[in-house]
Design brief:
This protein is α+β, with helices and mostly antiparallel strands. It contains five helices and nine strands.
């Protein structure tokens, strides 16, 4: 598997991005501000993440997704590790990521990769998404914020 910056001449993997964030408006907004990286296997894009500088010395992983049929094989962990190294190379002192309160496997993954929970944004998904999101039998309402010192 190869993880690389998305080329300017190739389209964004929008269906994959929407699998992690159902709002096209939100996806387009952070794509405009960040760098998109893709994981490629045998010429097929199977994973993606978007790294966005948020303030001096800090970046945020705004979206990270793996093709559904390939989840649970360590690809997400490789994408997170790549994002960590990329942020370090860019001179960042801190890397952040946010996920829904209902995103149980993602919360576990990020913590296994060294992120720590630093806060909660109550009702983030209620305020920013027109339709309720349900995952793992839970209403996704709150944004769990995690960070890692680089």
């Amino acid at each position: 598997m190869l993880i690389r910056p998305k080329r300017r001449d190739e389209p964004h993997p929008v269906p994959l991005l929407l699998s992690a964030d159902p709002s096209l408006a939100m996806v387009e907004a952070y794509l405009a501000r960040g760098e998109c990286y893709v994981a490629e296997l045998e010429g097929r894009v199977i994973g993606v993440y978007v790294l966005v500088p948020t303030r001096p010395g800090t970046a945020e992983i705004m979206n990270i997704a793996v093709a559904e049929e390939l989840q649970g094989q360590g690809i997400g962990k490789q994408l997170v590790r790549h994002a960590v190294e990329t942020a370090r190379e860019r001179g960042c002192a801190q890397l952040e990521i946010g996920t829904g309160n209902s995103s149980l496997s993602q919360l576990a993954l990020y913590q296994k990769c060294g992120f720590r929970i630093v806060g909660v944004e109550p009702d983030f998904f209620v305020r920013h998404y027109p339709e309720a999101i349900y995952e793992n039998g839970l209403w996704c309402r709150d944004m769990i914020r995690l960070a890692m010192a680089l």
